[in-house]
Amino acid sequence: MSKKKISQVRVQSFGKKSDIIFNILVALLAFSCIFPFIFVIIISFTSEQSLLVHGYALFPKEWSLKGYTYLADLKGQILQSLFITVFVTVIGTLINVTFTSTYAYAIARPNFKYRRFFTIFALITMLFSPGMVPSYIVMTTLLHLKDTVWALILPMALSPFNIIVMRTFFKRTVPESIIESARIDGASEFRTFTKIVLPLAVPGIATISLFAALGYWNDWFNALLYIQSDNLVPLQFLLMKIQSNIDYMTQNASLSANLSGGMASIPKEATRMAMVVISTLPIACSYPFFQRYFVSGLTIGGVKE
Predict the structure, then answer these.
(1) Where is the ABC transmembrane type-1 domain (predicted)?
(2) How would you label 68-95 residue by residue, b for 16+ Cβ within 10 Å and e otherwise?
(3) Which CATH number does 74-301 carry?
């Protein structure tokens, strides 16, 4: 066998070994990301007595559904809050993606006269925030949106970061020649955007949709500021209130014998973990549907000129 063939065999052998090593490393990294959530699920099904005696364990001595049973007793409030959260997430994501994509498309076009001004304007709003007090005054006094569902949607209806991502995505993936051809054929700007640009920008749209949906799903601060009605409380804020009530009752259980007896039946740790599972599982299940577009959209849209 010649030296050239020997070197090729060695290179192929080394390539296979390196692939195996990298696959193992990626698998370990993936497992390290999934394991904490699996551990939380296990704890949520562990009995309170087992947690007090043996602590956290992968294989608990005693299993229990009391954490979920306690939350099931509040199913009326939880279902109402879940409906509000789903409504806000869906409508808010649609509004956010619409505003973001149209803004980014405008500043990505070289024939738009004020594209530099609006690009700098978006960057300034991303770097400098007006603060909580001016935002509160605008929402409550100027727009009169306090204690309405729009107070949960409009504060996050436009994302400067997503605008910059989509702007770069449009400039790098949508050839100017295609847009010029559409204009020559007599297509309007709106028709060009909806029929030609958007189908080419599906990876970018999916990326910013995931960012927006995640932001709306996890938001509780706007509810703390603007929502007083129990019928408009989102899921994350309701779970935080349940957690605060459990902590308060735990700290003040000695004030009343009846309260103390009631606290003995509340699985505090399991309930905390059950709330984490309830708030995390739905949005985690949505990731596989976006995964097809997420990586390409994020990498292409994140490249700077």
Answers:
(1) 82-284
(2) bebbeeeeebbebbbebbeebbebbbeb
(3) 1.10.3720.10
